[in-house]
Amino acid sequence: MSRAFVKEDDGVEHEPLAELQVSPHRNLVTAEGLAQIEAQVERLRGELSAARSAEDRAAVQRIQRDLRYWSERKRTAECVPQAAPHGKARFGSTVTLEKPDGGRVVYRIVGEDEAEPAEGKISYVSPFARELIGKEIRDVVTLRDEDAEIVGIA
Question: Do 40 and 70 meet the contact criterion of CB atoms below 8 Å apart?
Fold first, then answer.
């Protein structure tokens, strides 16, 4: 067999993957957010086992990196209990806004890892969530290029 078709290790190891950056903010989470983090850790543990069985070194390296990140997020998670509504928007609140045209939009203020803006879940550290926190019903906030009135907080 020609040596041209034999895969040889040239002695150069692959560069290690860069670590995923952990946010400098407190890791506040809702109960749902904590469950998502725990599920992510369990999923990655299963994937790691499968990658080791398949002897897929690149996958093992990637999964181990991701597992370090999610394990740290789980370790530092501060689950904020659902408090009784007290009239002001806060972490975990669902805030309903009414736009000038009568349309309504709903946002829930959640932890960084559970934020999904397309689903109306915004991170508590985002500028818009910071604007909402502490506001009450009938307060007005800027929503994109227009003002919107807070009509509900749950």
Answer: yes
Range of the domain at 61: 16-79
Crossing angle of helices 31-53 and 57-76, rounded to 10°: 160
List the Cα angle 72/21/114 in 5-degree steps: 65
For 64-88, write each residue's pLDDT tens digit.
Answer: 999 999 999 999 999 999 877 778 9
State residue 38's pLDDT score. Answer: 98
Query: Helices (H) and strands (E) in the chain — how many of each?
Result: 3, 7
Q: What is the DSSP letter of 119?
A: G
User: Is 20 in the same domain as 75?
Assistant: yes
Domains in the chain, number: 2
Residue with tokens 């983090």: 37
Comparing C-alpha atoms, which of 87, 88, 106 is closest to residue 97? 106
State both tokens at 103: 């349309």
